[in-house]
Every structure is written in structure tokens, then in C-alpha cells.
């Protein structure tokens, strides 16, 4: 598939000329005239490269670059200017702009620069084969996730430690697995451990292993998770929950690239790529003395921030239908989709538990579904939202009137005289109301016979 280039220039003639040249070179081009239009396009679809004039009507190209960089750190930008100076070029390059060309420029030079940028950039798909299997577990079409996955792919090729930040349930382990699968270590083990789920007394043994007899209950040698992940990747989830004494030992392992099992006299060399994740604010934890600063910098060579589900709502319809297909097979049901109002309720719900909560909600509606199309009522139940039935005025009035009459008859044990008096209506009018709603007073008398006739005097 041809690379997609976003072209930004307020000179309409040059815009047409560049669009023609780039299209002739095999690129797919989207051309806009302002920085705001460029940002709007980026919100819809992420290109592989941005080519922008420096002087734009609503802001300069460097300001546009800064905004692009804040959202899409791996997206290359090339700037064009008719008034280039050496200091401008130096500043642009220092800020991370991939290329800076002065008009008029040679077309070959521009095309070469574009080819270089595309060769070094990392799109979410594999540049060589178009293989996206490394991230197949991550279902998304949002530009924000596309930018994150581009960074993840770029980082995967190195052995740099990565700290993944994100709310609980946002998919931190899925992202860690994707990084592992995109890395040269993909054929080696991927081991994950939740540091907050294992008691402090056992966590050291789980991570580093122990020798037989090292403590009560250690009846055999035990390989730790670092050894189990040797050659591959170890993912430490909820690293912010790791006790301080263990943080010191983890730092030593990272510095020395070796582990010493509990009760052992010698350390064992290891070759492990470390990924970690947390939903906690580690900066605040460091300030409170709950997290070691030296360990933080060892773990946080690169940070990836996962957006919450509320920040990528365009992914919700995609996710729910993906989950529905999987769960329909699990529950052996024929489920074809969600009713429009049910899908709208899912797309607009707050989702504090993120993707994990969304999956649980879809599983609940699948388990309870009795028809191929999931109705709003089941979704509201899964979301714990009271079902709101919308009635016409006449329907609501009819239902209220019947319920009111039933309550009066229950209260008066079916006595029409007493019920009419409480309703402040005469008996004739009250009887008409009962006939209108097909209500028989005798059914409400405590001594009524099974056929509804009163046996009381």
C-alpha cells in the first residue's frame, strides 16, 4: 500500500503542483491549506509523513510541528520555506523536524528526503511485509492509538526498558505483548507478573527464584521469573506496588544483569528485556519516598501512555463487535449485533474500568441474550443503568390510571364505594373507569373465591 502524505501549504498553485508530483511518485496525498485543517485531518486519519510550508495563514510551520509532535511523536515532518536561514534550519532540526528545505527546491532532493523519512519512520504496520500480526490483539482505528502503536513498533527493535502508563483495564499487558512480538526476542518467552497481586514475602522468590531449604516450605529449587524469561521479555505489571526492599534488589539485577536466587551463594547471568507498567503516579510516589528514583530512571528509558477508553471512543463500536463475535462462539449463540440505541449507550457510557469493563459488559449481554440482536435493555442492565421506557402521553396516562385504580382496590379490599370515595369520584363514574380498564372489584376481596366471586356477605 502506498504511503500517505499530508501536504500543508496556503499557496494553491504550489499545493496542486506538489500534489501532482507526489501522486506521480506513487504516494497518496491529502492536501490542505491551513494548520487547523491539517490538525483536523490528523484527527481522522494518521498519514506516514507531513510536508508543510513554514508560513501558514493561521500559524507558522514550527508551531504546527510542535502540536503534531505532542500527539504523534513518531510521525516525521518536513518543512518547506521560501525564506530559509541557517539559524532557522538549526532550530527546526534541534526540535526534531526531519527535514528543512528552502524554496525553490529540486524535486529529486525532496523525493529523496521523503523516502528517507518514510524508511526511518515506523507505521503501525510492518514496513517490509505489511504484517500487522504483532499487534493483532489490539483492536483499534483511532489516530491516538495509531500514534502509540507507531512508537511501540519503533521501540520494539531496541532493548530499551519501557514504562507503560495507563488506567486499570486499558490494555497495558496487551501493549507489552505487542512490543515483545515486534521485537527480535519474539520467539523467546514473554513472562508477565502482577507485582501487586503477589504477597511481599513471596514476590522475591517468584522473581529471582530460591534454593531448596532457603526458607520453610522451600522443598526444592525454584527457577524465578527472570530465569524463565531468559532470552525474552519480562513484563512487571503494577510496578508501583513493589515494596521498597524489593526495589533495591530489582535495581541490582538491572545493573548487574544477573540474579541471585534466595538462599544461593552465586548470581546467575540473565538476558532479559524489561517492560513495566503502572496506573500509579510514580512521580508522586517518589516524592513520598515510596518509589526509588534510581530504579525509576532504569525502568523509564521510554514511556508509553495508553489512552483511556473514554479518550478513544471511536474504538468502542469496533471493540464491542469484536468481543461479540468471540463471545457468541463461546456461548454457542447466534448473535448478529447490537440495536442502534444499544450501541449508542455503549459508545457514550463513562467506562471507568476501560476495555476490561467493556469486555465484561459485552460478555454479560451475550450470556443473557435471547435474540440475535442485543437490545438496549440488556446493555442498560450490564451498565447498571435503570431502563427508561419512553411512552406517549396517552400511554403513560392510561398506565398510571390503571395502576392507580389497582392500588385503590387493593387498599379497600375491592370495595367500590370506599375506593370511589378515596378517589373523590361518584360510584357511577368509578365503575366506568373500572370497566375501561377491565378491572373486576371482586378479584381484590380477601375472601374472593378462585373464580373471582365474593363469598362474603
TrEMBL record:
Pfam families with a match to the protein in the record: AAA_lid_14, Response_reg, Sigma54_activat
Kindly list the biological process annotations in GO that this record carries.
Answer: phosphorelay signal transduction system; regulation of DNA-templated transcription
UniProt-listed PROSITE patterns? RESPONSE_REGULATORY, SIGMA54_INTERACT_1, SIGMA54_INTERACT_2, SIGMA54_INTERACT_3, SIGMA54_INTERACT_4
Q: Which GO terms describe its molecular function?
A: ATP binding; DNA binding
Q: Which residues carry this modification: 4-aspartylphosphate?
A: 53
Does the keyword section mention DNA-binding?
A: yes
Instruction: State the CDD domains in the record.
Output: AAA
List each copy of the Sigma-54 factor interaction domain by range.
138-367
Domain of life of the source: Bacteria
Where is the Response regulatory domain positioned along the sequence? 4-118
Which keywords appear in this protein's UniProt record, sorted alphabetically? ATP-binding, DNA-binding, Nucleotide-binding, Phosphoprotein, Transcription, Transcription regulation, Two-component regulatory system
- What Gene3D superfamilies does its record include? 1.10.8.60, 3.40.50.2300, Homeodomain-like, P-loop containing nucleotide triphosphate hydrolases
Q: Which PANTHER family match?
A: TRANSCRIPTIONAL REGULATORY PROTEIN, TRANSCRIPTIONAL REGULATORY PROTEIN GLRR
**What's the protein name?**
Two component, sigma54 specific, transcriptional regulator, Fis family
Amino acid at each position: 500500500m502506498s504511503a500517505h502524505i499530508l501536504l500543508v501549504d496556503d499557496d494553491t498553485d504550489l499545493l496542486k503542483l506538489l500534489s501532482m508530483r507526489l501522486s506521480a511518485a506513487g504516494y497518496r496525498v491529502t492536501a490542505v491549506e491551513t494548520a487547523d485543517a491539517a490538525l483536523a485531518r490528523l484527527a481522522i486519519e494518521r498519514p506516514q509523513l507531513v510536508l508543510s510550508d513554514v508560513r501558514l495563514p493561521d500559524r507558522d510551520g514550527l508551531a504546527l510541528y510542535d502540536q503534531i509532535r505532542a500527539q504523534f511523536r513518531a510521525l516525521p515532518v518536513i518543512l518547506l520555506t521560501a525564506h530559509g536561514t541557517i539559524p532557522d534550519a538549526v532550530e527546526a532540526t534541534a526540535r526534531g523536524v526531519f527535514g528543512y528545505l528552502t524554496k525553490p527546491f529540486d524535486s529529486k532532493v525532496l523525493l529523496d528526503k521523503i523516502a528517507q523519512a518514510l524508511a526511518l519512520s515506523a507505521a503501525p504496520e510492518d514496513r517490509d511485509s505489511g504484517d500487522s500480526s504483532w499487534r493483532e490483539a489490539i483492536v483499534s482505528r483511532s489516530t491516538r492509538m495509531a500514534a502509540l502503536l507507531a512508537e511501540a513498533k519503533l521501540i520494539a527493535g531496541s532493548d530499551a526498558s519501557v514504562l507503560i502508563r495507563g488506567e486499570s483495564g486499558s490494555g497495558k499487558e496487551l501493549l507489552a505483548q505487542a512490543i515483545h512480538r515486534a521485537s527480535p526476542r519474539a520467539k523467546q518467552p514473554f513472562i508477565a507478573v502482577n507485582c501487586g497481586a503477589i504477597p511481599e514475602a513471596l514476590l522475591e522468590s517468584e522473581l529471582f527464584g530460591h534454593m531448596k531449604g532457603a526458607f520453610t516450605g522451600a522443598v526444592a529449587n525454584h527457577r524465578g521469573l527472570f530465569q524463565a524469561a531468559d532470552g525474552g521479555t519480562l513484563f512487571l505489571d503494577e510496578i508501583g506496588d513493589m515494596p521498597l526492599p524489593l526495589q533495591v534488589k530489582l535495581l541490582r539485577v538491572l545493573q548487574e544483569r544477573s540474579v541471585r536466587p534466595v538462599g544461593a551463594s552465586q548470581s546467575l547471568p540473565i538476558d532479559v528485556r524489561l517492560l513495566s507498567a503502572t496506573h500509579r503516579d510514580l512521580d508522586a510516589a517518589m516524592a513520598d519516598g515510596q518509589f526509588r528514583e534510581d530504579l525509576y530512571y532504569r525502568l523509564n528509558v521510554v514511556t508509553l501512555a495508553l489512552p483511556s477508553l473514554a479518550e478513544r471512543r471511536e474504538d468502542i463500536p469496533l471493540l464491542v463487535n469484536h468481543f461479540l463475535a468471540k463471545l457468541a462462539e463461546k456461548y454457542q449463540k447466534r448473535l448478529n449485533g447490537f440495536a442502534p440505541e444499544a450501541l449508542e449507550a455503549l459508545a457514550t457510557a463513562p467506562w471507568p474500568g476501560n476495555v476490561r469493563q467493556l469486555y465484561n459488559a459485552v460478555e454479560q449481554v451475550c450470556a443473557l441474550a435471547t435474540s440475535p440482536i442485543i437490545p438496549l435493555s440488556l446493555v442498560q442492565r450490564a451498565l447498571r443503568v435503570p431502563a427508561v421506557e419512553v411512552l406517549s402521553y396517552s400511554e403513560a396516562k392510561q398506565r398510571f390510571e390503571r395502576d392507580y385504580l389497582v392500588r385503590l382496590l387493593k387498599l379497600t379490599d375491592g370495595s367500590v364505594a370506599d375506593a370511589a370515595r378515596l378517589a373523590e369520584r361518584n360510584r357511577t363514574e368509578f365503575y366506568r373507569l373500572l370497566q375501561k380498564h377491565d378491572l373486576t372489584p371482586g378479584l381484590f376481596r380477601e375472601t374472593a373465591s378462585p373464580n373471582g366471586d365474593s363469598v362474603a356477605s
